[in-house]
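In this supplementary section we document a worked example of the pipeline. Step one takes a protein sequence of length 140 as its only input; no multiple sequence alignment statistics are reported here. Step two produces a three-dimensional model, which step three serialises into structure tokens for compact storage. The input and output of this example are shown verbatim.
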Amino acid sequence: MPNPFSSFFGRRARRQEAVIESDTRELRLSREEETVFDNNGSVETTERVTSIIEGGERITSHLQVVGQCTEAGCDRFLTHHSIRECFCGKILCPAHAGWDEQEKRFLCGECMRILRRRRRWQLLWGLLTAPFIERRNNDS
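The serialised model returned by step three reads:
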């Protein structure tokens, strides 16, 4: 009489592939799992995962990718650790985001230039109008 469990013995393979596409770039991640059953009842599973190094960070799953840098010419995929958001709403990678100490936030290049220009004009205006403004001392 044949063994009723003989159909369970053998090899099972499973392959998953995730593809994330943008206008200029494609990110392909795959995962293969192979399970081998033998007649003695032992089970051996081997797993192969392809990963991509993006900006010094290893990406092994499509769930790690949360966005893409919106700066012109930059196609870097971003993870939870590397994503930066500007005041204007742009999504940036760490290479294109600058930290402003006074605002305590990341800014894109354009917002950083606007903010620096505004601060220079405020400083210049303050220096020009300072001799004509009477300062009152609130101590008395």
